[in-house]
Amino acid sequence: MKLVLALTLVLALTRTGFAAGPSWKAGLAKIPITPANSLWMAGFGARTNVSRGTLQELYAKALALEDQDGQRSVLVTTDLVGFSGPLANTIAERVSKQHGLSRERLILNSSHTHSGPQMSDRLVFWSDWRMSPDQVRDIEAYTRWMEDKVVAVIGTALSNLQPARLSFGRTAARFAVNRRLKTEKGYFASFVPNPAGPVDHDVPVLRIDSDGGALRGVVFGYACHATALLPDNYRFCGDYPGFAQAWLEQQHAGAVAFFVQGCGGDIMVSPRGTIELAQKYGELLAAAVDQSIRGATRPLQGALRCSFDLVPVAFAAPPNRAELEARAQGKDTDSARHAREFLRASADELQRHAQELLKILDRGGHLPVEYPYPLQVWQFGQDLTFIALAGEPVVDYALRLKKELGADTLWVAGYCNDVFAYIPSLRVLREGGYEGGGAIVGARLPGPFAPSVEETIIKKVHEVVGRVRVR
């Protein structure tokens, strides 16, 4: 009987990650990035003015890890709508020079809160035409300031590396709902709850403990737009992810909570529109995470192997110059009518989009035929594969990858490194609507992606995962 009890204790300790000595070092840091002055807010094109105060502090947070081979990596999470590719590259270059951190070992994720500040972005122009020159300069100044803060918080986390134990678990939160509903006319309307549509309720959880077993931090994910608050909110706020992180940090004094946005491009909360609802969803998510970290988690052992790749993702053929000129002049051509119907875009949106594309051509430029899509994979020994997808991937990507690569040891994140457009699956691309291509009329990109978009990304994910997974 004593032998059985002893073996049971050993197995229990191994399951929760405290049997052997720590094989990791971890450093955690957070820094406020709330603008000090009023700025145009990001996420909703319906807003008509700058912010009016702060509802909740916004943060950039960094988790630095050092594995058994002495290799360091950093995950950054932010209460922002998303990093542009050029901004992420600038941050990565500065961190490489200051700390010797290679590109594949830095992930920049954003919660995609629609109640955060607008940032400088050469591609996105949703609100540019509404801004005064002074407002544009304020955004540029904030972007430079925020960049410095992110670089600083990464440095702080790296300087705070201490022996740590990592363990992984997962739970679920069931408040997210698909937001694409097929109408009686056959087209797909966005921002309408579709309880029968695909959704991913999975909540992956990474626990970081000190050598002595004290909780130092928790990283958790969920696939759902941070839009519990609507365009009538003009105060800075992290939305439901911000409230979830705050709740966990209040419950676990001294620990840092990190939220990682998932493949929630076509997912939202419903009902929505009040501070109380944003708090409610945040607390529901936090309570699920809290239950997970208080239960059994699986220890992560081994080296952290990392990869960063740029995958050429093709666009569909854009309208020719004659068609662009017609749209720019507001002419109601057959092509324009088809685009409005299929993409669910307004005539004004198509007109402004055509005007922006013509500016590129008039400057002697050319419209791109493909986009260099960032794809990143971190492999924690044999225990966890973390896939960081760029843009706003729809939920189909996470559901398919979990089916093909194994759900138990997979974490699929979106909104990493470059948030430049929605990333539709082939299904969503064929259905059209906002996520299928309509949203791209707010960016200086030629138009919807080619039908190859899903297979291009999935095939590359399989290739990279096969390369970094330990056999």
Descriptive notes:
The chain has 471 residues and is an alpha+beta fold. It has two domains: 24-305 and 373-420, no CATH class; 319-362, no CATH class. It is 33% helix and 25% strand. The chain has eleven helices and 18 strands. It has helices spanning 2-16, 85-99, 133-159, 239-251, 275-294, 321-328, 334-343, 347-362, 395-405, 426-431, 453-468, and strands at residues 24-32, 59-66, 72-78, 106-110, 162-172, 176-182, 188-194, 202-210, 215-222, 256-261, 267-269, 298-299, 304-314, 370-380, 384-389, 392-393, 410-413, 422-423. The strands form four sheets. Strands 1, 2, 3, 4, 5, 8, 9, 10 and 12 form a nine-stranded mixed β-sheet that branches. Strands 13-14-15-17 form a four-stranded mixed β-sheet, covered by helices on one side. Strands 7-6-11 form a three-stranded antiparallel β-sheet, with no helix packed on it. Helix 2 runs parallel beside helix 3 (133-159). The longest helix is centred in the N-terminal third of the chain and has 27 residues, at 133-159. It is globular. It starts with a helix and ends with a helix. The model is unreliable at 1-19 (pLDDT under 50).
